[in-house]
Predict the structure of Peptidase C11 clostripain.
Amino acid sequence: MLSGCMRRVWSIVLVLGICGIALGAQWTVAVYMCADNGLNDQAYLDLEEMEEIGSTDEVNIIVQLDNAARDTHPGCRRYRIVKDGFEPLGELGEVDMADTAVLRGFAGFIKRSYPAEHYFLILWDHGNGWSEGYGPSRFIFIDESHGHSMGVAGGELAAALQSVHQALGTRVRVLGFDACLMEMIEVACEGQDCCDYMLASEGLVPLDGWPYDKFLATLVARPTATPEEFLPEMCSAYIEAYLGEDICISAIDMRQLDRLLPVLEATVRDSLNPLDPGFGRARSTVQTFSKNPGRPPCVHDDQIDLMQFWELAAAEGTGILRSVLGPLVVANQARGTVSRAGGLATWFPDNYVEFKAAAASYAKLGFVDSVLWLQFLNAYFASDDVKPTQPVIVKDNLGGRGDIRLWWNRSHDLAPVSYKLYEVSLPVEAFRDDCNDLEEWSAIGWRTSERDYHSLPRAFFSGSGSNLDNQLVLVTPWKFPHGGLLSCYVYFSTEEAWDSASGFKRDICYIDWSENKLDWHTIDSLYGSAQYWQECRYVLPKSGSLYLRFHYVSDSSINRLGLFLDDIKVYAFDTMRTVAEATKDTVFYIFNAPFGNYKYFVTAADSSGNVSMASQFYPSGEPVMVETWAEPYTKPAPFQGSCELCLDFPEGVEPDVMIYTISGILVRKFENVTKRVLEWNGKNAAGHSLADGLYLVVVKAKGFHKTGKIARVGF
């Protein structure tokens, strides 16, 4: 007779069994099949392979399958795969398999109903490496019924895997991708915090996908084997299933990334010269992976084998990196045109245009937070033409002596950035053109268009075609005694391509200025594609006669939309001065600002010479008001010889300016001064150079008195 305790235990076991909750399994293999797309029919073939093995007491095989709307059984269902069949576990209806919450729900169901010592999560669908989940060619999962896809860049995959980790309450022991091109370091980094091993292919996966009968037979035969024991067998089974085909598969230990990434970062940041010819040779010969099933790998593919690249480069300083890379790959098999695959891929486009087009998306990867790979590639191509992002002044603080503190947001760029801060007074709109007619301009090839505009009803259009040399030139020049600022809105799509034989191919709109319409100076050159209307803001030089030109030039090859131009404004200033130049900080103190009302704007420049758009004027409302007169000072400070003596005094006042020694001896006097900047040779009234030391400067007129200190230092 059973004791009361034993009866309670068996009662619990019986209840759990009736509820469909498995006990004591070593593994639950959770297959998440997003077949609501062109792979719908293939899903049934893979299910048949799974049914050849079926679940056991030690290994549960659980599938969530979403079929396409055209299928005879559309919608999503769950199954437990058994020998020669399956057990239905529930109808979910129509779900979005590219939704993080749906994957989390599947993981929660697994944890509740089929808990196990280890979990093998297989993500089944199309794959495209690290890409974002937008557009027809960028996805991991694609759910046609919902028009949604899940990408890697941007954090969608990372969020999904984190949610699985939370639902399971433990790390995924093996993460598998039955999908193309997913064995990348960029993909691995998205899951390193919640997965131990990753099984995937660096290249394309055949339409029939994984041989599930062979894979599952390996696990069922030895359920207590470790991943490092059974993953090599799975890789071998995959290769044997596709004799004569160009395929590869590998398994990596994702826990090794914690050791690898700091070494890779230090190597890329400190030990390498990206312009070393060895990197170019390595890139031209390294194993690549085609995204086109009809074309073998070639040098133009943007996915390369990371392992082989560092072996080929073999640059000084990479020895430690290569030694750390080795333990990462625990299994690797490859054949045919991808036979040199080393087990882990990375992104390395073969030209700068492709790099630039994808860099913004790539920057959203977790890998970028750990390794300066984007910066390495940018330096490698040595063609940086991307402006730093526009800085924005966000805050100020005005002290009691005309001391002003300004803060602005940091500009993003792949190269080191410095800032230039401008101070202006009385900015006024000196010119406006809504671009509805060409009255203010001399136009060759340009016209107005109602096709696209920033504001109704039309905009200027550059024209589109081959071998264009279209010009839009201001008829009446502007006068800027103290400089100005140009604002205009543009929308464009022009050719920007790379030809391996001839190099860059671009159709370009140049923005130029000139004082005589003969010698033109380029402010900016616009090419490529703007996804939306964007404001351009440029500093204009001081000039008594300044012409502006928009100059669109195209070549004989591909012609795209062209450029639209709208809402041109020009601001003139009563004064403009540079108060900070080449500063790397995003905070700046202005000491001893002159009496007056001021606005500020800032630009960013990178080490390649690219300059950002000027920020908006700050403050946007009332200006910063300095209500004290600045103390006199010199430029430079301290001075050695000749210098500028900078003064601040009211309009209409002609003060005397006296320079004294600290003991009170007058050494120089300027009478009835009308200019606020005096050119001074640094000598006394007798023409002798001053001795090193401190001096007092007194600015004095009827009803006005201001004193400051200056210093002379000999070198």
